[in-house]
Specification:
This is Branched-chain amino acid aminotransferase. Keywords: Aminotransferase, Pyridoxal phosphate, Transferase. GO terms for molecular function: transaminase activity. The protein has 289 residues and is of the alpha+beta class. The chain folds into two domains: 114 residues, 2-Layer Sandwich (D-amino Acid Aminotransferase, Chain A, domain 1); 155 residues, D-amino Acid Aminotransferase, subunit A, domain 2 (D-amino Acid Aminotransferase, Chain A, domain 2, Alpha-Beta Barrel), CATH 3.20.10.10. Strands 7, 8, 9, 10, 11, 12, 13, 14, 15 and 16 form a ten-stranded mixed beta sheet that branches. Strands 2-1-6-5-3-4 form a six-stranded antiparallel beta sheet. The protein is globular, with a radius of gyration of 19 Å. It starts with 5 loop residues before the first helix and ends with a helix. 36% of the residues are buried.
Length: 289
């Protein structure tokens, strides 16, 4: 059972951004939200909104239900109800292009608490994609990697390490020296003409990750689900991270190891194809939101 400390609740409620949020179906001023709303056990999901459309929302809701199931609970609110409340949230805040966060808490009670709100969101500038990012190795194992649960202690450890070492992302290394995922992303490695990523049982099954797997298959690019050991990093031809806010983002360095990911043909092809898939999705959903 996951226990949430009071500081974790405060941290989440401090995330509330813009003027309005949704609390159990009602549009509320963020100023009205208090710390009694969110209690353990809790799960969450972050969805990017572009032009009024919550990107890949169906997959996000499916993953949220899976997170609840992994903890032994079931979300009682239907997808249609959640979608309706997301629409109300977007409209109440005048259709911003930002990420929204969905939180279900009190999962062990008959009446769940559901909170939806916008959060401050960072999207890398064009130059970041052109130059790539600096990443670091960090020895830590995420508990229950398949479930998206609140873990403020983990978040704070990573944040400090990234700030101290001036890095964009941390690649998590397990006790055997294998890289599983990023602290807030999924990680892919390119060796020769093949793309490697951790098996789905070892990582949070990111929505962007699933799209990249699908796109790679359509492009005829071979994906191998296998953990890469830190001793194999010297053999890389490139690497990239994926996530809700970053799409497909090339990695320039892993600690002191330099990579030419931004010029890697496979990474460029996957990145462009993902953007096209995202644009097609938004266009197909505009009349529904």
């Amino acid at each position: 059972m996951i226990k949430m400390k009071k500081c974790e609740v405060l941290d989440m409620l401090n995330e509330l951004y813009l003027d309005f949020c949704i609390v159990n179906g009602k549009v509320c001023s963020v100023k009205e939200v208090n710390t009694d709303l969110i209690n353990s056990p809790s799960i969450y999901e972050v969805i990017r909104v572009i032009d009024g459309v919550p990107l890949y929302v169906e997959e996000h809701l499916m993953r949220m239900r899976k997170s609840a199931q992994l903890l032994g609970f079931k979300i009682k609110k239907s997808d249609d109800e959640i979608l309706y409340e997301i629409k109300k949230l977007i409209a109440a805040n005048n259709f911003p292009n930002l990420n929204i966060k969905l939180v279900f808490s009190d999962l062990d009670k008959s009446n769940h608490m559901f909170l939806a709100y916008f959060i401050k969101s960072y999207y890398p500038e064009k130059e970041v994609y052109e130059n790539g990012i600096h990443t670091i190795l960090f020895n830590i194992v995420r508990e229950n990697p398949n479930a998206k649960v609140v873990n403020i202690e983990f978040k704070e450890k990573i944040k400090k390490e990234l700030e101290d070492r001036n890095a964009f992302e941390a690649l998590l290394v397990n006790e055997d020296g294998y890289i599983t995922e990023g602290s807030r992303s999924n990680i892919f490695f390119v060796i020769d003409d093949k793309v490697y990523t951790a098996p789905e049982g070892d990582v949070l099954q990111g929505i962007t990750r699933e799209k990249v797997l699908k796109i790679s298959k359509e492009l005829g690019i071979e994906i191998i689900e296998k953990n890469i050991h830190i001793d194999e990093l010297k053999n890389l031809d490139g690497a990239f991270m994926t996530g809700t806010s970053v799409n497909v983002l090339p990695i320039k360095t892993i600690d002191e190891i330099k990579l030419n990911s931004v010029n890697n043909k496979i990474i460029k092809e996957i990145g462009l194809s993902y953007i096209k898939d995202m644009e097609n999705y938004i266009e197909s959903k505009k009349n529904l939101f």
